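Hi there,

I know you've been waiting on this one. I reran it after we fixed the sequence typo, so this is the corrected version. Both the input and the resulting structure follow.
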Amino acid sequence: MPHKDGISFIKEINNEPALANIPIIVVTIVGERNICMSLGASGYLNKPVNWEVLLEMIIQNIRKIEQQKLFSLATSLR
């Protein structure tokens, strides 16, 4: 990203309540896995990207969001 690193981006997203629950998959050449994951990234990949692994991470995030929505719905119906 021009003019901004991934760590700054994750921090900004986390500080915006409307955006804080959006999954972030970090794709980078810089080895900052531990800090990105500790800041809440849902995944981390080094370049060059293995597209199958990236797709699987996206699918896992979608499934997680769907499960959370179902849980919220079930809880609200009690």
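Quick highlight: The two ends are 45 Å apart (CA to CA).

Best,
R. S.
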